[in-house]
From TrEMBL:
Cofactor(s) recorded in Swiss-Prot or TrEMBL: Mg(2+)
Enzyme Commission (EC) number: 2.7.1.36
Residues where ATP binds: 102-112
Quaternary structure annotation from Swiss-Prot or TrEMBL: Homodimer.
Gene name tied to this protein: mvk
Recorded superkingdom: Archaea
GO cellular component term of the entry, any: cytosol
Family from the record: Belongs to the GHMP kinase family. Mevalonate kinase subfamily.
Protein name in UniProt: Mevalonate kinase
Residues passing through the membrane, by range: none
Span of domain GHMP kinase N-terminal: 75-162
GO biological process per UniProt: isopentenyl diphosphate biosynthetic process, mevalonate pathway
UniProt keyword list: ATP-binding, Cytoplasm, Isoprene biosynthesis, Kinase, Lipid biosynthesis, Lipid metabolism, Magnesium, Nucleotide-binding, Transferase
Alphabetized GO MF terms: ATP binding; magnesium ion binding; mevalonate kinase activity
Amino acid sequence: MYLFGEHAVVYGEPAVPCAIERRATVTVAERGDDRQRVSAADLTLDGFTVEYGAGDDAPDVDVPTPLVEAAMGYVDEAMATARDAADRPDAGLDVTIESDIPLGAGLGSSAAVVVAAIDAAARELGVDLAPEAVAERAYEVEKAVQSGEASRADTFCSAMGGAVRVEGSDCRTLATPDLPFVVGYDGTSHDTGELVAGVRALREEYDFARDTVSSIGDLVRRGEDALREGDVAELGRLMDVNHGLLAALGVSARSLDEMVWAAREGGAAGAKLTGAGGGGCIVALDDGTGAETALSLTPACDESFRAELATEGVRAE
Ligand code: MEV
């Protein structure tokens, strides 16, 4: 989940994502043949199972939604990079995915699944990758699936845990106090690739959009100071501005604006959309219970919950 800097990070500005205690669990078992079988449950979709192997034209999917296709793209690439890491190009794998992170909603679900899948598959094939190596491979997977449009932010954050700072290829972990995160989810999902392409087009057409992207970078640098000082009031103010700048880039939505305003009116120090936008989640900072209550009473909000910072990234269970 992004405290600051989504979208602008794609153009080399810094971003600060934070890992929260919602996890994707991926179990991988080697098969006796060269086929791959993927089952997923709880991806806030009906569960699905796909089985296919080399030479099949298309997988046989019981729930053919664009979200499932997108998820399959990520899993396929993750298995390919794990086989490559283990130098086992023909290894057949059974993959089971469970996740309590809604898909395509701005909480980094694809990064969490990809990171866990690479780690589990490489381990099954006999290679223990360091979290940094998993992060780098996961970034390459996201980039391939999102047609070259991805930053290292989500994948590095998922692999390392805690709060991180990403600027281009410079990725670091940050010492961070536990912040009082509240998440509001409108129950919908977005297409990250499309939203990123929309910002790119706006930025190519208008100087103001280019300036907006660099203003987000300035704001993130101020946010890092506030984070270091644990200044929740200042973090909140900057989150409000970050939301406004993202809205100027065309990536907010009525439901996201409604949830942001509900959280603010409920007493949050600040609130913003998180991730690619277009629908999905907002994040607010609130020490009390007001923002969560206000969100739960907002028709646009399907689910609201407090989110703890997850200090641990990818792990074997
Ligand atoms: C999407 O989770 C975050 C974006 O900044 C894209 C990216 O960083 O890859 C919109």
